[in-house]
Design goal:
Elements lengths: L11 H26 L3 H27 L5 H27 L3 H44 L14 H50 L5 H29 L8 E4 H18 L3 E6 L4 E4 L1 H17 L6 E9 L2 E7 L31 H11 L3 E4 L6 E7 L2 H8 L1
Parallel strand pairs: 2-4
Antiparallel strand pairs: 1-3, 4-5, 5-7, 6-7
Length: about 400
């Protein structure tokens, strides 16, 4: 609600609140005066008038101050400090004028009050300048960030609300800078992954159109393979977007993690054979979890694909399934170079390609795997080698836990 009689600028609620506080303080002052001084009727009237006048002046200055349009917070702080000095000065002036018996004593008090007010205003000016300077830094930093300079920082070091605002702006700039770097890496990686198969498809189509090939079927098979690669990349991008938006649709049901591992290994045998890599599953007993079978299969296949791509020729990859405590654990272990310790903490982040020997492509496979596993309430991590070892932990069913203990 707004008081339209005051130009629509002063909230009535704020004025009412201040009036209530002022009346309460005046009442408290009268009670304390009555208790401590036992004033006469004349003194009681004088003190009540002084208290009422200063309370009215305080409310009036609040209304006038709220109607003013300050050009800066620094000026607002200074005006507020002057207002405090004025209210205090009027209160003392009225008291001195009506109650001091000696003009000398009254003038001495007024001089001391004038000096104190001047010092208080000087302090307010100094504080206001400090606040104004830091606010200018915040505004300048915000404008630079809006203009695209994501390296801008406020440089403000305070412990108050202004400092908290500065920290928030700096943190926002850091996150925007990191996001922009991720976007740049993503566009470069995806652009590379798109450019290579598209260039091969274009070359094959032109060769077929010009009749320069003796085996059109081989070229068509190559086009089909490159098209499938593009489709997988687009599918990965859509899947990752659903994972990060929390819109991944899962259909949990009891599944045997050992059977999932066997199916994923079977599907990857042809690809591994072409690269001279052998695959094997190592599972001592059925390990049941409640999960979406297609999603978990996608995780295992992503991990196997990553291991196959960067295993040495003649290398072996083992997919182990075990129960540890209350978890079902699946490990994909290869004989490759392993993960660089410098990127272990970020290997599962989206678009990470800091370790080209492991991530490959746009760096989506491990990010998708983490999103799916965490959506199931599990965890995925890199374990010590000597080769590469990625472990997936999912909550095991009670039956699998009891079987493992037996």
């Amino acid at each position: 609600m707004v008081d339209h009689r005051l130009g629509g600028r002063v909230p009535v609620r704020g004025v009412r609140r201040l009036v209530v506080v002022a009346v309460a303080l005046v009442g408290l002052g009268l009670v304390v005066t009555e208790t401590a001084m036992q004033p006469t009727a004349e003194e009681r009237l004088v003190l009540g008038s002084i208290y009422g006048a200063t309370a009215a002046l305080t409310v009036l200055m609040f209304v006038v101050g709220r109607r003013m349009r300050y050009g800066s917070l620094q000026l607002a702080v200074q005006v507020a400090s002057i207002g405090v000095g004025v209210v205090t000065g009027v209160t003392v002036l009225l008291a001195a004028q009506t109650m001091f018996l000696s003009d000398h004593d009254r003038n001495l008090v007024l001089l001391a009050l004038a000096l104190g007010t001047a010092l208080g205003v000087s302090l307010a000016v100094a504080i206001g300048r400090s606040i104004g300077s830091d606010l200018d830094r915040l505004g300048d930093t915000a404008r630079r960030i809006a203009a695209g300079d994501l390296s801008a920082r406020t440089g403000v070091d305070r412990r108050d609300e202004l400092g908290m605002a500065a920290d928030a702006i700096d943190e926002m700039a850091r996150r925007l800078e990191a996001t922009e770097e991720e976007r740049r890496i993503f566009l470069a990686s995806v652009g590379h992954d798109l450019r290579s198969p598209l260039a091969l498809i274009q070359a094959s189509v032109e060769a077929l159109e010009d009749g320069l090939v003796s085996d059109p079927g081989r070229y068509l098979r190559g086009i089909a393979s490159d098209t499938a690669h593009l489709a997988r990349l687009v599918d990965d991008l859509f899947l990752l977007s659903r994972v990060e938006a929390g819109r991944l649709e899962l259909t949990p049901e009891p599944i045997d993690l050992r059977e999932v591992a066997d199916g994923a290994v079977e599907a990857a045998l042809a690809f591994a054979s072409r690269r001279g890599v052998s695959l094997a599953t190592n599972a001592q007993h059925p390990t049941e979890v409640t999960a979406d079978e297609m999603a978990i299969t996608r995780v295992v296949r992503n991990l196997i694909d990553n291991a196959v791509r960067y295993s040495p020729e003649g290398g072996e990859i083992a997919v182990e399934v075990t129960s540890e405590g209350g978890d079902a654990v699946l490990r994909v272990i290869d004989q490759g170079p392993g993960f660089d310790p410098a990127v272990r903490e970020t290997a599962f982040d989206r678009f990470v390609t800091a370790d080209p020997s492991r991530a490959g492509g746009a760096g989506l496979g491990l990010a998708i795997a983490r999103g799916i596993v965490e959506a199931h309430g599990g965890a995925i991590s890199i374990e010590d080698g000597p080769g590469g070892c990625v472990a997936v932990r999912l909550p095991a069913s009670a039956r699998s836990v009891s079987r493992a203990r037996a």
